[in-house]
Sequence to fold (261 residues):
Amino acid sequence: MFVLIILFIFEESWPALRQINPARFLLDRAWHPTERLYGLLPMLSASLAASAGALLLAAPLGVASALFCRHYAPPLIARAFRWAIILLSGVPSVVLGLWGLTVIVPLIGQIEPPGASLLAGILILTLMIAPTIALTTEAALAAVPEAYWRGAAALGLSREGAIAHIVLPAARAGIAAGVLLAAARALGETMAIVMVSGNVVQTPTSLFDPVRTLTANIALEMAYATGTHRASLFVSALLLTAAILALAAAAWCLTTMRADA
Fold:
């Protein structure tokens, strides 16, 4: 099924790739298919900026949450906190997008109108991917052998010292794999980002700029696109799929390295 999906996307992209120099998808000055301008770079940069910003916030938050659950919280609080993280990870993206549209966007709009912006997208994506990082990090911490803790205690290390110098380095491959999987989810998110980011095709120069991501562009224009315009949307899907596959492959390699170690 996976191979068939990739082949389908490539087949639908081929008319555009055959008629348009592939470099134009990155070099054209704008995205105006009716004027034969097919620049995807503004939307690609918006997608990367939103995903990178969300990772910068979600990675420390997720790792700290996992450490709290695993090594600091009393059992009852840890159990409740873990269930809260699991429930947050299962909230539909459209619900988070609706909450962001009615709460986050107006708050940002009070600082810098219009409110629907790259920053709003980053904050919503952070809420979406932080649970993934927290759960994968906790699984990685749970896989650290108990002998490491005994060795740390024999060396006279405090709990904080053992976590910083032994446990986290031992779990780093699993943590990194979780971060990469979260990045893939952020890069592929559609509905929530459509609702809060403003959907203006431009290269972001500020956190308060309205932006449109690749996924949002596909969702907004596929319903009426025809001909080369439609094929160009599949080119953007092909570009997005390649990026997500690269992240997934990197996560798999890190997980394999951890298993070999």
User: Anything to note?
Assistant: The longest strand covers residues 31-32. The beta strands are 31-32, 37-38. The mean pLDDT is 90.
